[in-house]
Write a structure and sequence with these properties.
Layout: H1 4-9, H2 11-20, H3 26-64, H4 70-103, E1 122-127, H5 140-147, E2 150-151, H6 152-158, E3 165-166, H7 169-187, E4 192-194, E5 199-201, H8 202-208, E6 226-228, H9 233-238, E7 243-246, E8 252-261, E9 280-290, H10 295-312, E10 317-321, E11 333-341, E12 346-355, H11 359-364, E13 366-369, E14 376-378, E15 380-388, H12 389-400, E16 407-408, H13 414-417, E17 421-422
Parallel strand pairs: 4-8, 7-13
Antiparallel strand pairs: 1-10, 2-3, 5-6, 8-9, 9-15, 10-11, 11-12, 12-15, 13-14, 16-17
The chain binds one RNA strand through residues 39, 42-43, 45-47, 49-50, 52-53, 55-57, 59-61, 63-64, 69-70, 72-77, 79-80, 94, 244, 372-373, 376.
RNA sequence: GGAGUGAUGGCCGAGUAGGUCGAAGGCGCUCGCCUGCUAAGCGAGUAUACGGGUAAUACCGUAUCGACGGUUCGAAUCCGUCUCACUCCGCCA
């Protein structure tokens, strides 16, 4: 959510910001119009309430002295009715303004490159050497099925399409990656480990910006205002919702492992094979709550924290700075990490790291106080995947494959896996 | 799932025959005083949001005693619904 007061003060800045985000700048003017109507109604009803309060006091005084106050009471009766009507109008207008505000995207940081879509993103870094094969590299789903470490067909029987079940060393690889990623972030980068619930209520989802606009991307529990979380960002960012933190608590750094559930509405026909796009996947998510002045430095270090994992897993990747048109709606600035998938012959997003500035903090009422006497201020929130585990499995399989179909594992995983290669069980 | 109790400011805790209650008192905290150190003592202050106002303060107004709705000229106080917490019973990993 954007700052309404800031929009009033400098509408043009927000018209342009919204436009850069590929939203209609007229939204700002509509908002200001509704805001104006709300404020004038509010001023009027508050004036009437002031009248009423004074009259009530006078009535109380008269009664105490045993005098008759029926004239005043009769007069106030009509005032009260008017207040009731106006109160309702104020409520409606307030709701309208609030909804419009919730529907607006965050505006991009000035440093973000302009662009329409992913083609305008800027590659800012490459890391690692793409593996060279003396044979035609296989896609990860073939490797996995040949090794009998995932089962797509039976997963469909159990649930439906876009689900997968890991088996044997595949299941162990999932678990090993989760442990490795968590251990790394906790021990090396100072994150606090969190294991959240996988179901969150609507208020939490409004707090992070997934509602009201993106309800159809999530699975909702029937008859309840509860959703399966699309990412651990939801519980971790909402952990301190409606609280005022002490400045000494910042930065808050959480690393949380969870399953993530996405309905993948509108992606029919895309990435239908393999581990790339599923209704359920697991992920280690990094979330930070920081002071406003430090948030861009914190974004850089967040990207590095995610890169650490890719480097430790010896996976070639590149870092992309997302252009204004390809950023998430909530983000002020966003970097994506894309891992190399040799069989596909392309890079795929494996982590997305964003600074939301106060966009989420304002929605979730996440504040901090610099010292005892200062006013509460909104924190800045950031998050990034560290990493999406399904796609990491895909990358390890495709990059580590050998001529005989076995998989050479990254050294960092050997202690977690107990083997150096994944081979087909006899 | 059944039965009961409760929800007040940063914390504890008063406050129901409705009327200066934003709310007594205590603790904590901030500032000042005092005391050759420390402790104690004394005085003052100490919520949040929104609107108006201002260069910014000041200031003015409104709202907030779990949430929502109702009664009333007026509600922390009365009525209804909901949420949450605690206790007991049942059930379960």
């Amino acid at each position: 959510m954007l700052d309404l007061k800031a929009i009033r003060q400098d509408p043009d800045k927000f018209r342009q910001g919204v436009k850069r985000k590929k939203y209609d700048p007229a939204l700002i003017d509509q908002l200001l119009e509704a805001d104006e109507a709300w404020r004038s109604a509010l001023t009027e009803v508050e004036r009437l309430k002031s009248v009423r309060n004074k009259a009530s006091e006078a009535i109380a005084m008269k009664k105490k002295q045993g005098q008759d106050a029926s004239a005043e009471i009769a007069e106030m009766k009509s005032v009260s009715e008017k207040i009731k009507e106006l109160d309702e109008r104020v409520r409606q207008l307030d709701e309208q303004v609030h909804e419009m505000l919730l529907g607006l995207p965050n505006i991009p940081h000035e440093s973000v490159p302009d662009g329409d879509d992913e083609n305008d993103n800027v590659t800012i870094k490459h890391w690692g050497d793409k593996p060279q094969f003396s044979f035609e590299p296989k896609p990860h789903w073939e490797l996995a099925q040949d090794l009998d470490i995932v089962d797509f067909e039976r997963a469909v029987k159990i649930t439906g399409s876009r689900f997968v079940l890991y088996k044997g060393l595949g299941a162990k690889l999932e678990r090993a990656l989760a442990n490795f990623m968590l251990d790394y972030q906790i021990e090396k980068n100072g994150y606090v480990e969190m294991f959240p619930q996988f179901i969150a209520n609507d208020t939490s989802l409004i707090g992070t910006g997934n509602l009201p606009k993106f309800g159809d991307e999530m699975f909702k529990l029937e008859g309840l205002p509860y959703y399966l979380i699309p990412t651990a960002e939801i519980p971790l960012t909402n952990y301190y919702r409606d609280e005022i933190l002490d400045a000494s608590q910042l930065p808050v750094k959480f690393a949380g492992y969870s399953s993530c559930f996405r309905s993948e509405a509108g992606s029919a026909g895309k990435d239908t094979r393999g581990l790339i796009r599923l209704h359920q996947f697991q992920k280690v998510e990094l979330v930070k709550l920081v002071t406003p002045e430090s948030s861009y430095d914190e974004l850089n270090s967040l990207v590095e924290d995610a890169e650490d994992i890719l480097q430790a897993l010896e996976l070639p990747y590149r870092v992309i700075e997302c252009c204004t048109g390809d950023q998430g709606v909530k983000a002020s600035k966003q970097y994506d990490l894309e891992v190399w998938l040799p069989a596909a012959g392309r890079y795929r997003e494996i982590s997305s790291c964003s600074n939301f500035e106060a966009y989420q903090a304002r929605r979730a009422n996440l504040r901090f106080r610099r010292d005892e006497t200062s006013k509460p201020e909104f924190v800045h929130t950031l998050n990034g995947s560290g990493l999406a585990i399904g796609r990491t499995v895909a990358a390890i399989l495709e990059n580590g494959q050998q001529a005989d179909g076995s998989i050479k594992l990254p050294k960092a995983l050997v202690p977690y896996m107990g083997v150096e290669t994944i081979t087909r069980r006899a």
